[in-house]
Amino acid sequence: MGQNSDNKKINAMPTRALFVYMLTKDIPLIPAIMDLVDNCSDGAKNLRGEKSLEGLWVRISISPEEICISDNCGGFTAETARKYAFRFGRATGAPSITHSIGQFGVGMKRALFKLGTAFRVESTTDSSRFVVDVDVDKWVDEPDPWQFKFKEVKEDLKNVPEENRGTIIAVKPLRKEVSREFGLGNFMSQLKAEIQSHLQMPISRGLSVTLNGIHLVSKPLMVFNDARIAPAFLEKEYPKGEKKAVHVRLYCGVGQSTNVAAAGWHVFCNGRLILEGDKSSVTGWGEKGETNIPAYHPHFNYFRGFAFFDSDDPGRLPWNTTKTGLNIDSPVYRSVLEDMVRLMQPVIGFLYALASEKSETEAGELSPLEQIIDRSPLVPIESACTREFFETPPVIKKRIPTGPPVQLITSYYRPVDEATKVKAKLGARSWRAVGEKTFDYFYKAECDE
Amino acid sequence: MKKPSFEKFNFSLRPAKNIERKMFCEVFARLSRIAALRTYRYLGFGANTFVDFTLFHQRLGITDMMSIEGSVAYRKRIEFNKPYSCIKMQWGKSNTVLPNLRWKKRTIAWLDNDVRLDKDILADIRLIISNMRSGSVFAITVDVDFDEDVVDESVHQVRMNELIGMVGEQKIPLGTRPANLAGWGFADTCRKIMNNEIDAALSIRNAPNEPWSHLKYEQLFNIHYADRSKMLTIGGILLDRDDFGKLSAKDFDDLEFVSKADEAYRIYAPVLTTREVHYLNGLLPRSNPDVDRPTWLPQEDRKKFGKVYRYYPAYTEVEI
Question: How many whole angstroms separate alpha carbon A130 and alpha carbon A168?
């Protein structure tokens, strides 16, 4: 009987090699590194909650041989490592961090596989310390079951000093293509820019982040804040009043037109920048003519939109698994997009008015709306004075100066005998009078209304 | 500059529109089952005659009234013509005004356009359905006349291209063939496009919320008429579970012009003299609206009058 039922079973066990291959193919290099850095900032948020993150740090060091990310953000326990952190996929019952970024239970492993062929994870909390050392190539060939082994583990520690608590993740050797990228100056500059914009919220709250010893600073999101062009603000909750609801804040206004990368919509999920300066239909721009919002155009370089999605349950946030883009089918996002479009309309109306004013203004002069922009203070979005609706300020049209009618001189050559005949016929005394009288004669006959 | 349509016609003299307005009034009056009418806001395009505003203020007692007006150049003249002080003007096109309105109050919105359907009108529909609270009614009128000078064998494709230009290819309902756009078929297609927009907006609005709190849209209006151009009005009521218990489309079953179906109700306004109107009124109401007298009046006109006699406008010249 038993043998019979075994015969009816078909093996569907995934292979480890497939997992390593698949997981690493669907994420680009920088987002993979961001996943590891996100774990540090999640740790920081877990330690401090809504309080300042001063004193906490994340150090990233990268060379063509190795990547090492270390932090003092509290670490995670051997128990968490044993039960959840190294599992593929988030287990039911896994503890969640308030407003965390980690959600799917795949980011760290995927990043480690992507970066190299061996890694080491070392973490110390107030009561435990462990080291996991994995040679990926060997692990792939190991027989079942799916597990990693602690190289060292201590769980009965007492009062580990705060400065010693944290996590160190090192990957070495790196995969060939990763090592090649890590040797390029351009890659390092790009990584720096990406970390700065993606972690701008925690950095602005005091988290110190260094890349190869260089201190990274947050670039605050700036908007014009003259009361007449202050951004509109809208706050919503889905579902309303629930503890783990998605809390949405939208800002829509104008900023400096010279910073084209900052124009468009910026979308954040639990503080992590998901879309930066988006100018596509994902954020309501009419790329394919699906709405009455126009496609993005340089007129809109002043446009600034910010959408913040926050939730205690990161699973409810509208991001994709690599956190590099939005899940545009998310019911919450689709509903919020309607509001985003609604907030955009008046700002776009304002920018059209601005563009048409500019076209009517002499070069070197500022149109009335430009003058408002020119004199307006630029402030970070969080400290901006907002209003319920963005409205185009009424401007008084410049009066066209009234002066004497504009005149011009015309001159031409004609044969002397013909001209003399005309002069005689007109009874004109001068050649100038001949010109004027013939002009008047024609005008009266043909142009007078 | 294109003249606004009120420069071309006197709105109050368009009989079918006049009838439609009075029919609406009868529908709106029943909203009192949901909430007192004085708590409602009326949102419309008053132009310079404000005929709808006058009617709804007089008959329904609505005092929160907002007229959206794009003809800013006629500002002083239009302000002068406001019949009541409770009418607030919102200057600008509807798609710049609507995004900046609050929607906390129950609203009766009638976007009585005199132009053809376009992306801006679809955006208005989307915005209203996304924001209007339960118990609110909305109606939207559009011109559904191609108004061609020449009709030849290429006309079907020309019309189709025009429609695509108006709303965008991705809004054309699946299976629409160029030949479907002939006659009132254009109205049916426009209605489908607008209904699709309503459905999409409502689905997006409801999706993130608990099923018990979902809003339901019930069609009340699907009206055709032609004072000159062919016109289409669609509309309906938005209801949550509570309000649905107080009022729904079935409560309008006694009104023939309230249409829940795909088939439109056509308003006919037969041309009759005042004497004829008085005579026919004397024979009405009847269980069968086919008045059999006077025989010298076309039977078709008698029949049409019987359907609208309660709303039929009486015009006369007055020496003031």
Answer: 11
